[in-house]
Write a structure and sequence with these properties.
Layout: E1 2-7, H1 13-24, E2 27-30, H2 31-41, H3 44-55, H4 61-72, E3 81-84, H5 90-103, E4 109-114, H6 117-127, H7 134-148, H8 150-156, E5 161-165, H9 170-181
Helix pairs in contact: 1-9, 2-3, 4-5, 6-7
This protein binds BIS(adenosine)-5'-pentaphosphate (AP5).
BIS(adenosine)-5'-pentaphosphate binds at residues 7, 9-15, 30-32, 35, 52-53, 57-59, 64, 85-86, 88, 92, 123, 127, 140, 169-170, 173.
Length: 182
Amino acid sequence: MRWVFLGAPGSGKGTQAAKLVERFDLGYVSTGDVFRAEIKKQSELGKQAKKYLDDGLLVPDEIVLGMIGNVLDGLWAKKGFILDGFPRTVPQAEQFEQILAERGQPLSGLISLEVPDDILTQRLLERKRADDTLETIQKRLVVFKEQTEPLKRYYRDKGLLFEVDGAWPVEEVFESLVAIFK
Ligand code: AP5
């Protein structure tokens, strides 16, 4: 069980991943959480990443790809894992494919959580994380459509795309995902 979660900001990636990780005893990495932890520590990586998170932009691929080997390290010995927020661009997906091939651990699939923009915006405004201002949310949605959504085609062409309606209540979305994981 090796899954990637892709979905617009607020689509429920983190919420659903936490429940699935517990149900199926999987490893988990959220690159957004990694950056937020580094920003809190005021590390060099955190300082580099902060301006991008604050502006609702993606951290440049060279920074993400420079750190991703270390970030994924704890996952290979697990019986499976969920990656939340990586890969997020086509170059990231290409490098990830190479890493998986080197490890001999193919991906089970990419889950795309589909939620309309008005519901996403509402959820994020209610959550109130530092990057959840209306201006930043709108920017993140544009960036998602331009830079991350093309990954759906990349994985569809490989027969690995699973689209799930994420607009339903948490438990109903969870049951759809459990059915796919099983
Ligand atoms: P990241 O942390 O990945 O943020 P994101 O993709 O914008 O996603 P969110 O965490 O906002 O939403 P989510 O889908 O996890 O939803 P959640 O479950 O929290 O990345 C942050 C930043 O880091 C990026 O903008 C970028 O700068 C950088 N970054 C990270 N990875 C990168 C990479 N690979 N390359 C480059 N840059 C990278 O739910 C949201 C809210 O909705 C919650 O309050 C929740 O309770 C609620 N909710 C969830 N599901 C439901 C439901 N079904 N019904 C009602 N409410 C719900």
